[in-house]
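Entry:
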Amino acid sequence: MTDSTDDDAASGRRRGLALEQAIYDAVWELLAESGYDQLSMAAVAKRAHTGKPVLYRRWANRAELALAALRNKVPPPEFPQGDQGDLRSDLIALLRPLADWLVATPPRSSAHCAPRF
């Protein structure tokens, strides 16, 4: 009898972290190319070479998927030690590492990052 893991490897089917990373990579690529408005579960599934049911087992909708991809990519916040003296200074100390990270890793295309009002 063959091991199901051997069958998965032979068929090229990914599971676990490898599959999850392929999905997150697909989300980021699609966001960079088309923006959130055009992001769909079908497009992510196609880009990640998996099926929509695989996505819907993990995430209920594209918002949850995009948030999970963001959490996977963005480093966790470093909380400042102690009170900075006022709320503004506290927020700056909290958000500065995130802003530095965002500046250091710009998207491939910034056309879809501009807010639309």
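The first helix runs from residue 4 to 11.
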